[in-house]
Structure formats: structure tokens, C-alpha cells
From TrEMBL:
<protein>
    <recommendedName>
        <fullName>DNA-(apurinic or apyrimidinic site) lyase</fullName>
        <ecNumber>4.2.99.18</ecNumber>
    </recommendedName>
</protein>
<keyword id="KW-0234">DNA repair</keyword>
<keyword id="KW-0227">DNA damage</keyword>
<dbReference type="InterPro" id="IPR015886">
    <property type="entry name" value="H2TH_FPG"/>
</dbReference>
<dbReference type="InterPro" id="IPR010979">
    <property type="entry name" value="Ribosomal_uS13-like_H2TH"/>
</dbReference>
<keyword id="KW-0479">Metal-binding</keyword>
<comment type="similarity">
    <text>Belongs to the FPG family.</text>
</comment>
<feature type="domain" description="FPG-type">
    <location>
        <begin position="276"/>
        <end position="310"/>
    </location>
</feature>
<keyword id="KW-0238">DNA-binding</keyword>
<keyword id="KW-0326">Glycosidase</keyword>
<dbReference type="InterPro" id="IPR012319">
    <property type="entry name" value="FPG_cat"/>
</dbReference>
<dbReference type="Pfam" id="PF06831">
    <property type="entry name" value="H2TH"/>
</dbReference>
<keyword id="KW-0863">Zinc-finger</keyword>
<keyword id="KW-0456">Lyase</keyword>
<keyword id="KW-0862">Zinc</keyword>
<dbReference type="InterPro" id="IPR035937">
    <property type="entry name" value="FPG_N"/>
</dbReference>
<feature type="domain" description="Formamidopyrimidine-DNA glycosylase catalytic">
    <location>
        <begin position="2"/>
        <end position="77"/>
    </location>
</feature>
Amino acid sequence: MPEGHTVHRIARQLGLDLVGRRLAVSSPQGRFAAGAARLDGQVLVSVEAVGKQLFCTFERGDVLRVHLGLYGAWDFHGLLTPLVPGGAAAGSLGAPRVRSVVRMGEDERESPADEGGLLAAFPPDPVGQVRVRLASDVTVADLRGPTACEVLDPEGAAAAVARLGPDPASTDDPAAAGEVMVQRLTSRNVAVGQLLMDQTVVAGIGNIYRAEMLFRARLDPHTPGGRVPVDVARALWDDWCVLLADGIRTGIMLTRDDLGAAEREAALTDPSLRHWVYHRTGLPCLVSGTPVVVEEMAGRKLYWCPTCQV
DNA sequence: ATATCATGGTAAC
DNA sequence: TTACCCTGATATT
């Protein structure tokens, strides 16, 4: 159940603790046995997230492509480098340490630490259906419930990336990437609420960020892309850059920007405090007081305020 | 205990 | 549009 920020955090975790190592790759569940056999014993060379997809490149050029879909997740075990807010992994705070389980897929969870018992039991037995296990001598990453999990050659991986719209966190030229999004968004007559979820227009936005970005822009989700002014489309891209960077840094989708320090603290543990409209059907809009409405748009629930978003 | 729903996407009607 | 994939949390019986 990840949006783009989660996949970038997963890529970062894999980069810190498994890249550069020779890995044992297996499929405890069995459904990825052939792919795992092909990757087994190779050095993991690099990991990159683009939108909601993860690309893990191995030394012989094989690329593992993973998409978590609605309920996929990675569970990490063993020696892990904490993802320190701010990114720096220096100092004792960022030093690798033994941790039990960090599930990355929705809100991240960590099992109670049991450091003594953990190393003794390493590697842990797979729990439930594990599609792929990537294992070094000291770190294990278990993938469960993915929508997509396949091995591609470099050309296939490049083609998969080419099918995606721009992602602010996987480009070195965010301004140019933004113009690509603006062009694609404003050249179609589909509702902007659908275009923001279209991964070929812009990559990484999911149902929560979609609803929240439209509210933050005070934009009616039904506005056809072609009727969105260019400066408004640019503002949507700029806002996505801000939200994504914040989500990658904190691991949490906090899309309200009106909270004081105490409220922000509370929102870290209470998801119901994080959003303007998402999942707030019938509750008063935090700006206008109008009840938030929900409707079905292209098979997904869309939350918005009919008073603020015009 | 059973049903429903979810931060997603594809492929088949 | 709908079915399906295949997991886990929450809601309902």
C-alpha cells in the first residue's frame, strides 16, 4: 500500500545494507523460483526507485523489477542502517544495528527489539508467503505480496522506466521533468483527478497524495487537464516535489501544512490527523466547514471539498 | 468466524 | 467497466 515515497525509502534501505554484497536469493514461497535461481549468488550493484517501481541491478546485468501493488511489503531483518530523517547516515544514530523487523509498505513498524536472540536465530525462518528473500550474511529482505516481480535484461528495465512519467526523486533536473508533467497533464481532456494517478503523466502519486494535492491547490478534481492553467500545473508539480521529499524523509504522508508542533507530533501516531480530505467523508472541511464528499473516479475513491475546490 | 476494504495495476470482457 | 492478484487490518455476524 505504498505511494512513491515508500518505494524510495525501500530503495534507500536496500542501498545502505545490501548493495555491494553478494546475495543469496531465494523464493521461500516458490512462485519466483526460476528468477531467484538466476539472481542467486550475484552481487547487488545498485537499487533505484522510479515512481512506485523498484529496480535492483545485479552484477551480470539482470534487473529485478518489483511493484508492491496494494498490499505488497518488504520486511527487513538483522543488521540494518537506520534511515535517519534528513538522510545522513553518519554518527552513532545512523550506525547499523540489529533490528527485528521493519515492515515497509504502509506505515513502518518495528517489532520489539530482541538483539541477543536475533543474531542467534539469524537468518530467521520466513513468515507466511515470502516471494523473494535477498540475504547477505547479516541482513535479510523479504518481499511479500507484490503485484509485479520479474527479472529483466537492461533493455527491458530501460523500457519499463521509459513507460513512466517523471519522478522528482529520480531525476537530476526537476525543472525539466516538471515541464514534461505539465505538458502531459495539460494536453489531455481527462479529469485532472485521473491524470494525477496516471503513472505515465507523473510517477509515484497514489490515492492519498492525489486527493491531498488537489485540495492544496484548491482544484476541482473534474477539471479537464486541458483546462488546467499552465501555472497551476506547474504548482502541482512543485507541490509534489515538496510532498515527496517530505515523505521520503519522514516515512509518513503528512499533507496538512497548517499544524503546530504539538499537532504535528500527534499526527505522527494518528493517521486521522494527517490529511485535509482523504478518508474524511462527511466530516467538516478544515477550511470551509462543508462536509467532505467521496465519489468513485475511475474505480478509486476520490475525496474532496466541493466548496474549496472549484 | 466471516466479510469487507485498502496508499495499485493489468488484462479480460 | 469488471475480475483478479493475494495480504492484513478492521468491521460485522
